[in-house]
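Quick log. Single chain, no ligands specified.
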Amino acid sequence: MMKPLRAFMSRLPIRWKIMLWSTIILCLLFAAYNAAQFFAIGVWLNNQEQISMQKSMAQLEDYYQERNADTEQVKQSRSYLEKILEKKRLIRVLDQNGLPVVAVSDRLPGDWVPPQGSLQSLLVNVWHEDEHLLVMRSPINTGHFSGTIELINNLETLDQISDLLLFVMIIAGIGAVFLSGLGGLLLSRQLLQPIQSLSETIRNIKLKGLHERVQPLNNHDELSRLAEHFNDMMDQLEASFRQQKQFVEDASHELRTPLTIMKGHLSLLQRWGRATRRYWMSR
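-> predicted structure:
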């Protein structure tokens, strides 16, 4: 799997490699950030619910302890429990046998969580079908009454916020993929533009001659310095060819007279040779 993928990546143009890698890196960073943010917000919201329930539990314990309540007073505390009851919560006080003495509820049926006594403070997450519930149990002993206080909170709102947050993050992730791809394409085009200009200049030099040059970039970066060095190299090369051409022209001009003289002497010698040969042949 990795070998064909590596071969495919090696065949891609540099522009698409830059775009692809920048998109992958940005998406991974964005996904890691969103995951950390989602986890942190979820933990914070859950902690806030726990703190709220702990405050309510402490308020109930203080209420019964201050009144040194007995079983009858616990039964008569319904009006107070209804007063402090929050939305989608259930407050239930159990006797030492785990049987309900008084219970108040706001849109949270008591049969979703069976009553259960406890000898120590507990905080547990339970599920009733699709409903997520947070249950807190704490023992109470007023001297006249021993039992357990139960607080049950429906985390539906918290789950809805988490689902909404996850949906927003997914949509933002899709948008980030698109924007990072577009940004990578623009970045690769910006980075490779000087190289493309250099490639076109080399092609023009091959077709039109050594006078072609790369347009100055004035970016004061590595690619700008590369273009400057290339133009300097071409200036030196053109000057070298010009000097070579001038040397050939000067040499041919300087050698023209001696060669003409040598040609004349050779012609004269050739004529003398023919005359001498005819003279000896006639004898």
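The radius of gyration is 48 Å.
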